[in-house]
User: Which sequence fits this backbone?
């Protein structure tokens, strides 16, 4: 694949272009592997499942084990125990049991999937200088609108957290060292702090 220079504008908190920055071509100029990206998304979603659903079989339900009525002579169907699945309050046949849904993805594949995700979302990337100095939620919300981050937005920070953006609707905050493929593809806009790009 032919590599190209990835110079993108860096905007200030007022939305005006201040300078340009070159994005790492290994992450933003990679070949998009859709199959790998789909696999990374599937692994992430599978790992969010707790697998705690559980039901009791007829052997685990509390209740008497005696025969509920005699075998013959009643005119009714033959039954042995009140805990049978056919009765209300009885056991469940083939019900869910606790299980582990987690899947694993090798580190090289995770990195390649992240590169595919970032490359596919390159047109939605916004690099902003000065976001780290904002401490008020109201000012942060205004700034995100000014830079064009409308809709579901992922704010990639250089630090562990950014308090100013935590309570803004449709905005998720993630430190750059925790960035993963699903977070990238599940948002409409990607706002990177300028400092975060350097750490990427």
Assistant:
């Amino acid at each position: 694949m032919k590599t190209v220079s990835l110079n993108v504008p860096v905007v200030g908190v007022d939305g005006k272009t201040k300078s340009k920055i070159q994005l790492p071509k290994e992450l933003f100029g990679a070949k998009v592997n859709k199959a790998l990206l789909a696999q990374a998304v599937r692994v992430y979603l599978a790992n969010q499942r707790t697998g705690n659903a559980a039901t009791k079989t007829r052997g685990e339900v509390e209740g008497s084990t005696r025969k509920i009525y005699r075998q013959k002579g009643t005119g009714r169907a033959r039954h042995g125990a009140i805990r049978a699945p056919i009765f209300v309050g009885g056991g469940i046949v083939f019900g869910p049991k606790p299980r582990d849904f987690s899947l694993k993805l090798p580190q090289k594949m995770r990195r390649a999937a992240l590169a595919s995700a970032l490359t596919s979302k390159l047109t939605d990337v916004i690099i902003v200088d000065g976001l780290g100095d904002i401490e008020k939620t109201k000012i942060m919300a205004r700034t995100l609108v000014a830079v064009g981050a409308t809709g579901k937005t992922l704010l990639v920070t250089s630090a562990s957290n950014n308090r100013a953006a935590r309570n803004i609707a449709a905005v998720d905050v993630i430190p750059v060292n925790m960035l993963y493929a699903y977070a990238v593809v599940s948002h409409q806009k990607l706002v990177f702090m300028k400092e975060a790009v350097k750490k990427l």
Residues 7-49+101-199 form a domain with the Ribosomal Protein L4; Chain: A; fold (CATH 3.40.1370.10).
